[in-house]
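Before any further analysis, backbone shapes were mapped to integers, which produced the following:

***
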Amino acid sequence: MSSFAEVMQAYQQQLQQGLIQQAYRGLMEFMSALKTSLKTEYPDYQVSGSLYFGYMDMTYFSFTPPNLKEKGLKVAIVFVHETFAFEAWLSAANRAVLAQYAQLIEDAGWKKYRRVSAAENPDAILKHTIMANPDFSDLTALSAFIERDALAFCADVQAFISDLQA
């Protein structure tokens, strides 16, 4: 295992090349533009006011349909830096709501999306990979794909929760 001093030296060397800053800035601009676009296109959805930049582990914003918000649930569109993937997460406003819906989903045996254990990710109930290894050469197409897939995820979750509570 590398010492902190060794890791910082490697970090400095990478920063001196300038590509990390350029890539990170571009990713943050893309995520901000995606958030703004979704907020404009879907005014009924709760879209977080700010982008969570993270610690180069994940970057995300919430994009929640009104009926999930009413139940204390939320959806996050997440870029996971390590796996280089866009994901949709079903989360909740607090740990109690998260535990309640995690148990309901587990008891119902819903397997359409991957359930997440609290040990793996204490902030998510379900995870769905929207796109692994995205192609950033066509940002319009990438945004459209993320939008379609996130909307499908939201619709599936809404339908399941509605059926579950009917």
Remarks:
- The CA atoms of residues 135 and 142 lie 7 Å apart.
- The longest strand covers residues 73-80.
- The helical segments are 4-17, 19-41, 66-70, 95-108, 139-164.
- The chain has a mean pLDDT of 95.
